[in-house]
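Course assignment 3, question 2. Fill in each field.
Student: A.L.
Task: Predict the tertiary structure for the chain below.
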Amino acid sequence: MHHLALPFYCAVIVGLLLALLARAIYTGADSFVLLALGGIAYFGWHGWKDARRCWPAFRAEMQRRTDERRRRVMPADDTH
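Answer field:
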């Protein structure tokens, strides 16, 4: 499913930046706090925007796959 790959990567990066933010706050490294907040805002916004843009295509493909499975004729299992 390539439709939601980029939002997933952004979510992973935001998670890592949240861990960096927690560590920076704990150790008092103010320069990393600003860096982490900026990265969280950037990747969070772009991940959300891309997820909203790609969601209709993802839903259409899921519906197409569901319709293909329902349409497929199953072979008879009366061989014994």
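Instructor remarks: The radius of gyration is 21 Å. The CA atoms of residues 1 and 27 lie 39 Å apart.
Grade: pending
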